[in-house]
Amino acid sequence: MGRLSIEARDRYLGVREYERSLDRTDARNGFNGRDFVTRLGTLRVRVAWTRQRAFLPAGRLRLERRAAEVLLLIREAFLRGLSTHTVGRVVALVTEEPVSAQTVSRLTRDLDQAVAQFHQAPLPDGWRYLFLDGVSLRVRRLSGRKRVQLLVAYGVRANGTRQLLAFTRSTGESQAAWEGLLTDLYRRGLEGHQLQLVVTDSCAGLAAAFQTVYPRAAQQRCWVHKLRNLLGAARRRDHAAMKADAQAIYQAADRAEAVAQAQAFAHR
Questions:
Q1: Domain extent listing, the chain
Q2: Which of 1, 8, 93, 222 is the most exposed place for a label (fewest CB within 10 A)?
Q3: Tens of pLDDT along 56-69?
């Protein structure tokens, strides 16, 4: 790559080294090493300079100061709860180049812009199913680790692929909190014209909010939550059999078989 840099400088000047020209307006000014951090380590490139500019090799694959994989490592380590100083040391173990705490802070600030763009992105109205739930996550704060409550919405297309559609911070799962999330989905384009089923837990606030924003869509209790409730009311030695019998209901090939399996489950 160093040779490519030299050739680029020669083309710019119009003469090779030790050749003379009365027309050129710039002059050679030596070389400088530039490091590019990749997932395989640090690559040092010899860069030719003139007094006015540098000549990065034209044949390089658009090397960045830090490759995308390293940027992902920095952000993922930070999101996992490591301090900015610790992240720098972890990256140094992989790339042999230390990363300052200031650099880590600058890179992670880009996440704020990405999150803002995510919340404003328009949504197509082709989603068939919605999964809604409140989740609790542990996050790092200056005062230590604490739990944060999130309201989350996943959409599922007709072909079975799913996508995170929205999430928001909340102090609980009240009707007002869920109405805020659902109204935002509606505002971004998910008006629910093709929405066939909404899967939720037994949260009363969520059920009420959904009747306000998407009153025509059918609702179903989440089977994961239902199974947890069933097993919580049974003896431990009966868990395997009860789980298998309950799964036979929703794994049935058609409605008739599902009804038969439900009746057998209730009888047993």
A1: 2-55, 68-120, 123-221, 222-268
A2: 93
A3: 665 454 445 556 66
Which residues share a beta bridge with 168?
Answer: 151
- Cα–Cα distance measured from residue 255 to residue 129, given in angstroms and rounded to the nearest whole number: 19
Q: Is the pTM of this model over 0.85?
A: no
d(CA 77, CA 104): 10
Does position 1 have pLDDT exceeding 60, yes or no? no
Where does the chain show beta strands of DSSP type E?
A: 28-38, 41-50, 54-55, 129-141, 144-156, 162-169, 197-200, 218-221
Per mean pLDDT, which range of 92-96, 103-107, 249-253 is the poorest? 92-96
Residue 157 — very low, low, confident or very high, per pLDDT cuts 50/70/90?
A: very high
Phi, psi values for residue 205, rounded to 5°: -65, -40
pLDDT of residue 58: 53
Nearest 5°: phi and psi at 34?
Answer: -125, 130
Average pLDDT score, the chain: 80
| CA gap 67, 62 in Å, rounded | 10
218-221/197-200 β-pairing: parallel
Average pLDDT rounded to a whole number, residues 84-88: 73
Q: Tell me, what amino acid is at 255? A: R
Give how far the C-alpha of residue 66 lies from the chain's centroid of Cα atoms, to the nearest Å. Answer: 20
What are the two backbone dihedrals, phi and then psi, of residue 52, each rounded to the nearest 5 degrees? -110, -20
Cβ neighbours, 10 Å, residue 49: 15
